[in-house]
Structure formats: structure tokens, C-alpha cells
Design a protein that fits this description.
Blueprint (H helix, E strand, L loop, with lengths): L1 H26 L6 H20 L4 H18 L5 H19 L6 H13 L2 H24 L11 H13 L3
Helix pairs in contact: 2-3, 2-5, 2-7, 3-5, 4-5, 4-6, 6-7
Length: 171
């Protein structure tokens, strides 16, 4: 009977491990593309900078941008039109920043430009829309909580969350 109990426990454990693996495979793709990993690392690093200092690291942006150009030339099939469309959200954010006397951060526009090097135009737009939705919800929460003295908040963490949501949500 002890042998039957051991065998049953082993089968339960194997089933549990298998189901855990299946759950993780359903959440994220088995292999994330190199460009996605690079974009996530860039956003993660600069999100921390944006939260702490309200600015991004231009060195990190230059490094990620240089790598993004190499990546785009080697991996993307939609050159040059697709790349141009992918860079448009960043260019629009920079233009909005310029027109609003930088009420919209220039770092956000630079980050979106770098981000556009790694993702196709449709995915870049979808991730930006998710980030705008997240930032809108955050603004509503801050208004409800009546946080005085906080007229702005960092956008790059919202962009990072939008990117993660894009990867996790079913297509």
C-alpha cells in the first residue's frame, strides 16, 4: 500500500508540474525575440530613471538606438516604409513636446523613437495605445485621490506596462 501511495503522489506531482509549465507557456511565448528583449530592457532601465529623476538616460537611448538600427537593418522586412511608420509615434510625441513647451516630455518621444526601431508599426501603435490607456487610468486614480502638487507623472513606466500587457494579452 505504501508503494501505491508513493506512485499516486508521484503522479500528482508530475501532473502539477506539467500544468504549471502549460500555464507559463500560455502567458508568454516560448522564445521572446531579441528585439523584444532589448526593448523591454531599455524601457525597464529608463522607467527607473524616469521615476527617480524625471528624465531618461540619453546614453542608454543612444546605445539602444544604435543597436535598434542594426537590428532593424538585419531583421526587419518592412524597410523603409514600415520603419518610417514605426518611428512616427515618437516623432509625434517630440512634436507635441515642442509645441507644448515640453509639457509632454521629450524623453518620452526619444524613448518611442528607439522603441519604434524594434517593433513593426502596428505593434508600436498598439503598445502606445495600451500605455495611454494605463496612463489615463493612473491619472483618474490620482485625481480621485486628490494628490496635490502632482501635475505630471512619468510615462515610461506606463509604456513598459503597455509592452508587458501586449505580450501577455491574447492576440
Amino acid at each position: 500500500q505504501t508503494l501505491k501511495l508513493r506512485k499516486t503522489l508521484r503522479l500528482i506531482l508530475e501532473h502539477k508540474q506539467r500544468s504549471e509549465r502549460l500555464k507559463m507557456e500560455n502567458i508568454l511565448p516560448a522564445k521572446l525575440p531579441v528585439g523584444t528583449i532589448a526593448a523591454l530592457l531599455f524601457l525597464l532601465f529608463n522607467s527607473v530613471c524616469d521615476i527617480r529623476k524625471r528624465r531618461i538616460s540619453l546614453r542608454a537611448a543612444a546605445l539602444a538606438g544604435g543597436c535598434g538600427i542594426v537590428f532593424a537593418l538585419m531583421e526587419r522586412k518592412d524597410l523603409p516604409a514600415g520603419l518610417f511608420l514605426s518611428l512616427m509615434p515618437g516623432a509625434v510625441l517630440l512634436l507635441l513636446g515642442l509645441l507644448s513647451r515640453w509639457a509632454v516630455g521629450g524623453g518620452d518621444g526619444i524613448a518611442m523613437l528607439v522603441f519604434g526601431l524594434y517593433y513593426p508599426a502596428a505593434e508600436t501603435a498598439e503598445i502606445l495605445l495600451l500605455a495611454l490607456l494605463i496612463s489615463s487610468l493612473l491619472a483618474i486614480v490620482l485625481l480621485i485621490m486628490k494628490k496635490k502638487g502632482r501635475e505630471s507623472f512619468p510615462f515610461l513606466p506606463c509604456l513598459l506596462m503597455g509592452n508587458v500587457l501586449f505580450l501577455v494579452l491574447p492576440k
